[in-house]
Amino acid sequence: MTNNTEAPLRSDFSGLKALVVGSTGGIGYAIAEALAAGGASLVMHGRNPARTEAKASLFRARGVVVSTICADLAGGDVPEALFDAARTSDIVVLAYGPFVYKPLAETTPDDWRLTAYACLALPGMLATEAAKAMAGRGSGRILLFGGTRTDAVRGFKSNAAYAAAKTGLGVLAKSIAVEFGPRGVSCAVLCPGFVDTEYLDNQMRTRLSAVSPRGGLIPAQEIASLAGYLVSGGMDLANGSVLVADRGLYSL
After folding, report:
1. Looking at domain 17-245, does it have CATH number 3.40.50.720?
2. 3-class SS of residue 214
């Protein structure tokens, strides 16, 4: 990547290093696959060491350069290796954030601490370190993941703590764009709709499919394709934006 406003979007990621936080399943893994297919080297973060290594081995078998970082980030500790990876990567994707599904009246102080830290403070820390280092090199792209319908301030009946933290990511992205955009750094928030991942049980999959505007869930690979476009340069024009990818959810 170069700090050149007339540079075309990259058709591949050869020679670039990408950190994907939350890359052992769901949207994060699909994004890791897209970046690896484009030639990027990967730093994969996961919570479970065996699962993380198993996923990384699939990439290594295809010749992808992969390193791994295993850490349970919900506990409040961030390994220095993760900060180092953020500082040295050309692309940073934060596809992570524990989901708390409770009415506000049942949301505990621990729930608030978890979501405020893991869904807002943690992305803030990693994105800030990445942005500072990228600005020193003159280029870099950071993609944050919000939650469904967290592109604006709204009320929620069943996940207020999670949504409040994820909505705050818009302030982070716009602040990075304001401070570091002139030095070649771009940041955006992507808010997906209902995505089909292994984390959904059959009951939840059926319920979400029924209320999706086009029926059925969004394939994770479809979100990964959009993410790949954004980190290849598509977010440069929309630096600081909060982008919605939910097929028109609730707009009917």
Report:
1. yes
2. coil
